Amino acid sequence: PLQAVENEEEVEEVSKKIAEELMQVRFSKNIVGVVVKADTLGTLEAVVSMLENRGIPVRLADVGPLTRREVIEASIVAKENKYLGVILLFNVKAPPDIEELALREGVKIFRESIIYKLIESYEEWVTEEKSKEALEKALKTVFPAKLQVLPGCVFRRSNPAIVGVRVLGGVIRPGYRLMRYDGRLLGKINQIQLKGKPLQEARSGSEVAISIEGDVLVGRHFDENDILYTDPTEKDLETFINDFKNELNSETIHLIKEIIEIKQKEDKRFGLSILVKLRSQTQEIR
């Protein structure tokens, strides 16, 4: 920044003032936040301001091409929070060797020549990545569910058993373990179909066909009209309650209690800590 002075006595004071202003725009903080590089001080200030207004913390802000130090700064953050361990470049370049370093360190770089597009592309990436993460976790977690075998819908008795079911509560997915109303393990859902098309899940109210893998025979181990449940572990239920709060409602809370009651026939201590958590969750929902 340039500023005119009337005499030499003002030089030191004005220089100090300019330096303070620069420090407000170009900075490095020891916080978990993104790295921002821009072509000018004005655009840098605009990008940082927009990020902070959106609640996105900034660890380092500076002008000029991306450097090795800044990639290292972002990689340190990425180890703690991959969504903030990123670099946003506005109208500046990253030398090829620095690009390679970022790739090796697993640091994502965003680059745009329009400020709002830069922020938008970063936020869209965060949303997409969090959705993927939630889906991956959901696929690894057995959700609570209750289903009824539909009468007249036994299509195959074993190897695998194929039956029509109505989902009475919760959600079922391929890979979920199933148990009988008395806790006897039946097997795993291999596939879910509706009108011959495979589904990734079926929710409360759905009527679908499922194939069940395992040592199970329809007519001996379960039959038409029987009530079946998914067979979540305590860890599954804890993950469901803690990480999938949008799925938690009065129906699923009641369902979890039913499943715990069934499982406690074998293990009296099963789900005790979960029942404590559910009390507070029930109060919040009310």
What is the assigned CATH homologous superfamily of the largest domain?
Answer: Translation factors
Q: Main sheet: which strands, in order across?
A: 6-7-12-9-8-13
Mean pLDDT: 90
Radius of gyration: 28 Å
User: What can be said about the biggest beta sheet?
Assistant: 6 strands, antiparallel, barrel
Number of helices: 8
Order of helices and strands: HEEHEHEHEHEEEEEEEEHHH
Q: What's the CATH topology name of the largest domain?
A: Elongation Factor Tu (Ef-tu), domain 3
CATH class category of the largest domain? Mainly Beta
Overall SS class: alpha+beta
CATH architecture of the largest domain: Beta Barrel
Oligomeric state of this protein: single chain
Strand content range: 25-35%
Distance between the termini: 58 Å
Which outline best applies? elongated
Helix coverage percent: 40-55%
Number of domains: 2
Q: Stretches where pLDDT falls below 50 for ≥5 residues? A: 17-24
Strands, total number? 13
